[in-house]
Fold each of these.
Amino acid sequence: MAGKFKEAKVVMKKFVSWLVLLTIIAVITLSLVGCGEQKLTKVRLNEVTHSVFYAPMYVAINQGFFAEEGIQLELTTGQGADKVMTALLSGQADIGFMGPEATVYVYNQGKEDYAVNFAQLTKRDGSFLVARQPDPNFTWEKVKGTTIIGGRKGGMPEMTLEYVLKNKGIIPGKDVTVLTNIQFALMAGAFTGGTGDYVTLFEPVAATLEQAGSGYVVASVGQESGEIPYTVFSAKKSFIEKNKDIIQRFTNAIYRGQQWTANHSPEEIAKAIKPSFPDADEKILTAVAKRYKEIDAWAENPLFTEEAFKRLQDVIQLAGELDKRAPYEKLVTNQFAEKAIETVK
């Protein structure tokens, strides 16, 4: 009897030992998982609109490049550069993704903690001129005497449209009416509701209208305007100074997205960005990615050159929205882009 009791005691000790060991392993595992989660830094990014035009960014998100750089991205959509800049300056966003014209306006207003551009994503206008009927023989002369829904006055889409029109000898307000009183997010709805003869739209909205038979792409604004630093990533000067490591890791992820996009087909790009456009047909996404590749819309790297900044201000000045030119060295930093290009392989 005593022997059996002793044997049971030994078994119990072994059981307790195993239980303690398993508990220790569980605690260590949970600690390691916890540490892994702590390494992810939350970054609040406010994008100007949600468009396939920004495919390299969505590639970086969905391919896990941000996570691999230790960033947990919180993405919101501002619907307009003015709203993105408001979110940035008020502290509702860490990084803004918008047209760099907004940074020029803020700097010229004398803001002390102004926004600085640190990475470029697109290098030309991504909007398309949409007509009510198919027009394979479209020329810009045809817009004379018509009305175009052009976007917010002083915004890059509207100013680039004006730049193209003026380069074609077509004067807004004289030869063509450009509507600037319709909010960016409502432009497609206004057009399908009967306003205007033409509208400038980004993808996949333009392709969706084509699929529904409500509108037809007749021209690329970006193809006509030439290269312009159209959409860039910006952050407040103070945020960049205090968070250089975050900005570097963010830029690394963007550059990886740019490289991936440059080296993959429209079909592969469509698959990669599909999680960011769950309601979009993959065939439309493929067609749109092909369209953007054809007009060479995406920058190959995040560098924002002085020449590009000069051209940007030429466009703003031609639109009558620039009182004085802002200094490139104040509003642009390439230190993070240069390091990304040097270190990311």
Note: The beta strands are 41-47, 71-77, 95-98, 115-122, 128-131, 147-149, 177-179, 198-201, 216-220, 231-236.
Amino acid sequence: MSEFSAVNTIWVLVAAALVFFMQAGFAMVETGFTRAKNAGNIIMKNLMDFCIGTPAFWIVGFGLMFGGSGALVGRIGGLAEEANYGSSMLPAGVPFYTFLIFQTVFCATAATIVSGSMAERTKFSAYCLYSLMISLVIYPISGHWIWGGGWLARMGFHDFAGSTAVHMVGGVAAFIGAAILGPRIGKYKNGRAQAIPGHSLTLGALGVFILWFCWFGFNGGSTVSMEGDAIVSAGKIFVNTNLAAAVATCTVMAITWIRYKRPDVSMTLNGTLAGLVAITAGCDTVSPVSAAIIGILSGFVVVFGIEFIDQKLKVDDPVGAVGVHCLNGMLGTVCVGLFSDGASTFSRGFFTGGGFALLGVQLLGMFAVIAWVAVTVTIVFLAIKHTIGLRVSEEEEIAGLDIKEHGLVSSYADFMTSDRSVAVSASGAAQAPAEKAPAAAPTDASDSPLPKLTKITIVTRQNKLGDLMQALNAIGVTGITVTNVLGCGTQKGALHYYRGVEMEMNLLPKIKVEIVVSKVPVALVVETARKVLFTGHIGDGKLFLYDIENVVKVRTGEEGYAALQDTPE
């Protein structure tokens, strides 16, 4: 037992736990950037690619990746058990099973990238089969070339934590899968890309923060040591990882602010991930200045890359997985050859005095891995397409995969009810429902000489609700129903871009206020509402007036004018 280091073992296990938690980050990003009707399906895919990939990597993948020193492949066959492997591939002081779980969670990260690009129209069974194949064969073989002593490792190819081995592999698979699958219904109209906004940027942002936090384990944990020089290296890795992500985020914010006239939230969140992906290959071998430059470059790559893929190539990638992982995985691989300071590489980079040698190896490795993944993933997806089928039916896609694939009416249960209208009094107090309703024969209120009943519906800005309720209460209107709604007028909302695509119709959050008046003059209600809501700008809202035939109070059975009065028991 003395051959193992407690410090190194604990460090690798903590890092493995952080990398595992990246699954939650990816799940939140993909769920938030897509529509609510597919949320449960996306959660299941992120869950199952890990759960399917874990035994697949244990049974076959680990051996292919680390089971031997062959140029192309490790060991075919043999469970990932300590007795079946020597210690030659283990990092210093790290036990076998610690190394196994660390590599397992990295494999799962590569697999889960694809679910975002193929979201909202892929069969669940087809996705499960793909997850099996990438964890079983595709990822382990290219991983062997880079990290398992294969031919690229022998040439000096450097990918410290996985810009190529993990992110570019997942990104290339994501691009091929989305291209074969085809776009979502309604994504392209007359050759132009249409914006299909996700349902929760809040979830998307939560996912990005989770991923940023876990990336310190992804990159920092790849030292697989916390002794000697690794202590110093880990601090540098953390700084470079954080710096690249922060600078990339600022870069994307600035680009979208200039291009779209407003800083785009979803694209800026993608910018954070782009910076993290791009720095992953060289975080141990570039200076902080170079890390900042890589962050700037990744910001440009992700914005223009996503626009090019979406609008020119017309490959529908709902979450930007290809721009983030494929293109910035490529960038990170190349940047090692451009900016390496010589630490952990056989030569300095092109811009740091090392010439073309390292850059040439990095380019060769990048194209080799792209070719391997593109060919194998194409075979897998085409085989699935022509056997069990890759895509759901049009009816299933329109209804949503939650209900059609999993029998979920809504993934949000009581958090999103079918009717979110709320009835309140002017003071905001809710009325308790009666235990029973007395029987009362309906009567025709049309013969009543009492005041006419009029319903007034007001649609306006959300921030005007408090002032409007106070003003209505002041003129004697105390019964009110308020609903949160989305809508726009004939102007179709203000010009807005979503991920670089101009939205044809921008639905804005509004409130709908409904009241029924009898004794209070309708003209007074209209005048009061207009006075409170008026700003002189587009979006002040509208008032709709309707004649009411009759009103029945459920508790007492009273009708017409009497049903609107607050009569005590």
Note: The longest strand covers residues 508-517.
